[in-house]
Specification:
binds zinc ion; Arc Repressor Mutant, subunit A; three-stranded mixed beta sheet
Length: about 160
């Protein structure tokens, strides 16, 4: 972990809180589902569904994917695109948020100020679309990776 950066989402999400949110939304806490939630919470950086499938050989692929969908639908997971364009998930407290992602090490800083709100209002007015979502990821090099890059000789 990088001590110089705040943790991914300020307050780490506990297993109990995650399970509570699921029950509040009416989802049954089957044992495989619980196992997937536990595995998800171990990730402080973005991870892919296939990564989780590989970590949980005892759980079926369909259950992993379904549970990730459920966690995303209750906002415990946010879908984001990695610098390489591949979709990934990042865990956090429920609520609308965006992410700053280090393209070298994958460390994530969440921010809740949504810079897209005004644009969404304007687009709704101008196009009469019923807009129901948007994605915004910001990529860069975290302070640690910036100093590592300085030390790496050019090849
Ligand atoms: Zn980094
Ligand atoms: Zn937003």
């Amino acid at each position: 972990m990088n001590a110089r950066l705040p943790s991914a989402n300020g307050h780490p999400l506990t297993l109990q809180r995650a399970l509570d949110v699921l029950t509040e939304h009416g989802y049954r806490l089957t044992s495989p589902r619980r196992t997937v939630v536990e595995a998800v919470l171990r990730h402080s950086r973005p991870f892919t569904a296939e990564q989780l499938v590989a970590e949980l050989p005892a759980i079926g692929r369909a259950t992993v994917y379904r549970t990730l969908e459920i966690l995303a639908s209750v906002d415990l997971l946010t879908r984001l695109l990695q610098p390489d364009g591949h979709p990934a998930y990042v865990v956090g407290q429920p609520g609308h948020r965006h992410h700053l992602v280090c393209s070298a090490c994958g460390v994530v800083v969440a921010f809740t100020r949504c810079p897209v709100e005004d644009l969404v209002r304007e687009l709704t007015r101008d196009t009469e679309f019923a807009i129901h979502g948007h994605h915004l990821e910001v990529f860069g090099l975290c302070p640690t990776c910036q100093s590592t890059t300085h030390l790496t000789p050019p090849n």
